[in-house]
Amino acid sequence: MITFSNLSGSFSAAAKDAAVEVLTAQGCTVEVSDLYAMKFKATATAEDITGEPKNAEHFRYAEETKLAWEEGKLSADITEEQRKVTEADLIIFQFPMYWFSLPAILKGWFDRVLTLGFAYSHDKRYSHGIFKDKKTVLSFTTGSHESMFSATGINGDMNVTLWPLQNGILHYCGFQVLAPQIFWAPSHVASQARSTMLEEWRKRLPGLLGEEPLTFTPMDCFDVEKGFQLKPEVHEKNATKEFGLTVGIHLGKRLPPNNQMKCGV
After folding, report:
1. What is the domain extent for residue 55?
2. For residue range 198-225, what is the model confidence (pLDDT) as tens digits?
3. Coiled coil where (predicted)?
């Protein structure tokens, strides 16, 4: 499955087309959700539920959509996207990075499609998540060069920028998150450089399903009774190490290099 949020004729569109072509030629069944073409609604509202909500006076989106999901009363556009997620082994999110994050229409897809109950619950999240058997990857363009997204660059470390997206959304729902495919500033480089970017993506695609995911700290390392704090023995084990566990769970140490950009770190 490829969730695509950009206009036709863009570099992102070319990256999406490359993925469809390569994966289809490999024998994969590929479904594309072109959010702009679909005019996908970005805002999470009571309209996402068919019929009357359980508590219209004090409407709580997460709880109401959980009940609607259980009763088959979510709106048709959400239900269709949830079907695609359920059937997918791999989901590629193709988009241009907007303001260090996602375009509003794609953020709306996450807000509306990954409902409580369907995508996560109190007991099923992170390494125990519902989608732990599925892989996903962020494939996106930037408006700035790679040097600007470094630990010494003006935009800051891209690993830090990616943490809320890859840990807070994807890993939270249990996905095995593959290293992102980043197309650095395609609008500011020569056409040959853009062609090279696409060729590298084409070379990566055939082996995507076999790639090792990024590293996140398992839920078993946290003490539920103490507010999901890291267990003392995990602290002790990592006390003498130079780097923290991950970008987010860093133990006050130096951030592990490329923790959100390359597998095995």
Report:
1. 11-212
2. 999 999 999 999 999 999 999 999 999 9
3. none
